[in-house]
Amino acid sequence: DVLLDVRGLVVRYGKATAVDGVSFTLAAGEVLALNGPSGCGKSSTALAVLQLRRPDRGEVRFEGRRLTGLTERELRRVRPRLQPVFQDPYGSLSPRHRVRDAVAEPLKAQGRWDPSEGPARVAELLDRVGLDPSYGDRLPHELSGGQCQRAGIARALASDPRLLVLDEPVSSLDPSIRAGVLNLLADLRDDLGLGYLFICHDRAVVRHFADRVIEMRDGRVTSEWSPRPPDAAL
Ligand code: ADP
Ligand code: ADP
Question: SUPFAM superfamilies annotated for this entry (predicted)?
Fold first, then answer.
């Protein structure tokens, strides 16, 4: 069940080629990591998959649909199904909006807000990511980095996604709370059958978390490996 099919992706910044013909597929329920040194093109690949930056060449297919051919207007309808989670936990939440509103906003924007059920849905999403629903009253800066990353994941889940594009989601978190967030992500993948494109420069994290790893260097895929046989226990 192929969720994402990326073919010959090229991303240029002016004359510099950041991504130089990257291809891969990702199945539903799979964690595919992009690993490699800083500057090798991981984030640029993620942005191009999300169509937050249109690739210069190549194709991105998501659930069989060619995103690279869609207009912005058409993309708006697909976007909820592929959601980003970025490195800066405070970056995905607007600083002046309470957590409750940040999680409710995708539901409202997508016309799925029912005033009689919405607040309970928000509470359920917060609970799902391990936040007490009372945290809904807080502003992002009143949360720790880990709590804030969890709130950002709740906001992503509100869109009912099939794919999360996670760009270094635990790299700026305190090492002591990384495992908790990774365990949450593993549970969500298992429960919801989500696919993850997991950008991570840390090989220890990748080895622990990914089903399959693509190594990148200078904008290209140099190798592919699996940390463990699929379905083996952690
Ligand atoms: P990684 O995520 O692996 O660290 P990036 O995709 O961020 O790699 O960067 C790949 C290359 O593209 C690097 O050489 C980087 O300096 C360059 N780059 C990234 N973003 C921009 C940008 N907005 N403008 C110009 N160059 C960029
Ligand atoms: P401003 O608060 O600066 O007026 P907007 O409300 O126009 O900003 O939203 C700016 C961006 O923040 C938009 O991309 C929007 O999707 C996002 N956004 C809107 N409401 C929230 C919210 N409650 N939490 C997080 N992000 C939000």
Answer: P-loop containing nucleoside triphosphate hydrolases
